[in-house]
Amino acid sequence: MSWGREGVPGQFPLTRADRSVVRAVELAVNPLSWILVFVTWRVSGWGLGLILLASVEWPTWRRGKRVSAGPSWWPALLRKDLRAAVRLFDTALAGVIVLMFVAYAVREPNMAVEAAWIVPVVVALSNSTIALNAFGTDNGTGFDRYLLLPLTGREILWSKTVSLAVLVGGQLGLVAVATAWRLGWAAGLVVGVEGLSLLLVLAGWGAWVSVWVPFRLKAYRFADGGSVWAGLVAFALCLGPGMAAARGDWWVRWLVIAMTGAVCWAMLGLAGRRLEVGRERIRERLP
Amino acid sequence: MSIRASGLQKKFGTFTAVDGVDLTVAPGTIHGFLGPNGSGKSTTVKMLTGLIEPTAGTVEINGIDLRVDPGGVKRTIGVLPEDLALFDALTLWEHLALAGPLYGLTRGETEERAGQLLRYLDLFDERHTEAGQASYGMRKKTALALALLHNPKTLFLDEPFEGIDPSSAENIRELLVGMAEKGATVFVTSHILDVVEKLVSSYSILAGGKVVATGRIGERPLKDVYFEHIPRPAGEEFSWLG
Fold it and tell me: Do residue A68 and residue B107 have CB atoms under 8 angstroms apart?
């Protein structure tokens, strides 16, 4: 054995790959990195949420008085859900991941296409907190208001789905645009289709879980409870259709969209009915 | 009849909270629903407004069977529930802006009525406060404004004067009397007998989940009827107090 054999892993001088590993480990164990990640996460996560919120609030600001909700009723519910969502750490984490991916796409000319496939799954899973606990931020009193308004269970869950679509769709849209910018429109479209299938999976499964095992969420916290098995199923559901949409042929992608769309539609109907019948049980679990 | 309930019962496990309540309230009536704590008043209101399902019995509001057409009932009633039922993340004004279109009001109508109600309840300047940050009184007034916004045929108010300042309470009383004169029905639960006696025209007294007395104001003093059926706890000598 002799020192100085260039290109032998684990021996000096270090190879380029070795140096990359050392730099990465150094960065990971450096407390300053963690502080930086924390600050970025808080600022950017909320920032992205606020951008989404502003897009909903904009029509009323433009009229010069931040008061009315417009002629239909769902913008007010959307505004409420977005306000609550940006106060959850899980959603903020998703925002940070999206911004990190955008930065990666902008800075790295040889961006790995696999990153563009996996990031939407991670973003969707991070947002699964609000999808699986649709009434988690409303608490019991807010849930009672839903019941007092002349809305059916299905309409209530549709309003939740719209909120989820705006929030998660906004985040995944950014991922798709960044991918398209770096790898071309075809790659961006694939990510868009993958994002849509993930959104449908989350909306359908989330509606079902939200009325079967409701769980209260706390602002400025990570979700610290809820159904573990529901989370594991969400993981499996996101990974399956997500990867199929990302890696399959186009006919597979459209099939995934059609299937997840049909399942989402059916789940919203079933969960809506369950909400009406089992409203007392849901209310009990949302103190 | 505006309110017709028959054999209304609610069980929570083995505990019977409401046991065979029959109620009939005519249009244009302010009906007081009285009783001590834990007598089942709020549970009854929750069943009448569709918040919870009765274990047994039927409910008909404004001629609509609650079990058959809950949406139809909800469109004709206004409710001030026990827990106020507000969304923490919405401002007081946004609650009204949300409810108006759901009851078929235009944006203009919603804004006009909401502004008028909030000014009358001395809440207009605080309208952009999120409900989660508002005081109990502000939340209660907002819930009341929500109950009134769509001009309901029948109002259910659970303890409407608790936690409300005197001037707003007087305004609310005048508003309710005015509504009843125009034909609306008001169903009020309360502990405060003096307030109820000045407001209502008929009453029911609930104890242990059962209606123990019904009557009209003016027949006999309400306090006499109440304490006849709801005995006061025995007197104690508090020599150590004061």
Answer: yes
Q: Which of B88, B90, B103 is closest, CB to CB, to A76?
A: B90
Between A69, A71, A151, which is nearest B106 by CB?
A71
Report the C-alpha dihedral over residues A160, B104, A269, A162, rounded to 10 degrees: -20
The three-state (H, E, C) secondary structure of A173-201, written as one string = HHHHHHHHHHHCHHHHHHHHHHHHHHHHH
Asked whether the beta carbons of A244 and A257 are under 8 A apart, the reply is no
Distance from C-alpha of A69 to C-alpha of A209, rounded to nearest angstrom: 29
Domain segments of chain A as ranges: 72-284
ipTM score assigned to the predicted complex: 0.93
User: What is the Cα Rg of chain B in Å?
Assistant: 18
Instruction: Please tell me which residue of chain B has the smallest CA distance to A219.
Output: B89
Q: Measure A151 CA to nearest chain B CA, in Å.
A: 7
Judged by CB atoms closer than 8 Å, whether chains meet at B94 and A142 is answered as: no
Angle formed at CA B19 by CA A274 and CA B222, multiple of 5 degrees = 120
- State the nearest Cα–Cα gap between B75 and chain A, in angstroms: 6
pLDDT values of chain B reduced to their tens digit, one per residue, 242 residues = 899 999 999 999 999 999 999 999 999 999 999 999 889 999 999 999 999 999 999 999 999 999 999 999 999 999 999 999 999 989 999 999 989 988 989 889 999 999 999 999 999 999 999 999 999 999 999 999 999 999 999 999 999 998 899 999 999 999 999 999 999 999 999 888 888 888 999 999 999 999 999 999 988 888 999 999 988 888 788 889 87
The span from the CA of B42 to the CA of B31, in Å, is 15
Q: A-chain residues within 8 Å CB-CB of B52?
A: 279-280, 283
Q: What are the angstrom distances between the C-alpha of A273 and each of A132, A203, B136? A: 17, 16, 33
pTM to 2 decimals? Answer: 0.82
